[in-house]
Amino acid sequence: KVYGDNFATLAGDSLLNRAAEHILEMVCSKPEYAYAGLNMLRCSGIRGMIGGQDIDISSTGRIIAPELLKELHERKTGALLMTAICTPVFMKDGNKDSELIQLLRKLSNSIGLAFQIKDDLLDVSATTEVLGKTVGKDSRDCKSTYVTIFGVDIYWYAVLIITAIVIGYFSIEHTLKKQGDDIENYLSFIILELIS
Predict the structure, then answer these.
(1) Is the dihedral of CA 25, 28, 32, 35 positive or negative?
(2) Half-sphere exposure of residue 81: CA atoms within 13 angstroms, side-chain side
(3) Which positions ≥6 away from 144 have C-beta within 8 Å?
(4) How far apart are CA 53 and CA 51, in angstroms?
(5) How far apart are CA 163 and CA 8, in angstroms?
(6) Where does 94-127 have alpha helices with state H?
(7) Is pTM beyond 0.85 here?
(8) What is the tens place of the pLDDT at every residue in 34-59?
(9) Which of 44, 35, 77, 81 shows the shortest CA–CA distance to 187?
(10) Is the pLDDT at 194 greater than 50, yes or no?
(11) Which of 3, 62, 83, 177 could bridge across to 7 with cysteines, CB 3.0–4.6 Å?
């Protein structure tokens, strides 16, 4: 608000370009990381977080179909988590659409969806002190959420999603053990944080 919308847009463009520069600099020194870099850019672009933000902005003030809301969160939160979870595998294995990557993608989307459902519930049930941000913002901004579409009883859906995450986790653990690898500790941490 200090510098206006035009400079804010330019700042956002500059940050995205700078991120791409960093990725390409990495690829120049380690060409085997090329697909990992491509995956990061895809997840942040129109097929990922920017595309999700586009749906979010264009949906403000109206109730959208549950399928579109799911796509919104898969492109935003899901894509963000997919970058963090899948990139190390791509760096290790290169361009390899393996069974493990397929499982990690599903896990990323499930974690993103569970996180968003929990966030939607907290927006109507928590206090500002507990949440660390203004509560009731979704309602004031006329945002479509799982709570506004399905009601607070959506909690049962979150439980199902978390169950799917746990099943996915054990599937990945089995796959990694077959490959002689260890399951990453941070996946356990994420799941425990979501269900706590």
Answers:
(1) positive
(2) 23
(3) 59, 62, 63, 64, 69
(4) 5
(5) 41
(6) 99-125
(7) no
(8) 988 998 999 999 989 999 999 998 98
(9) 81
(10) no
(11) 3
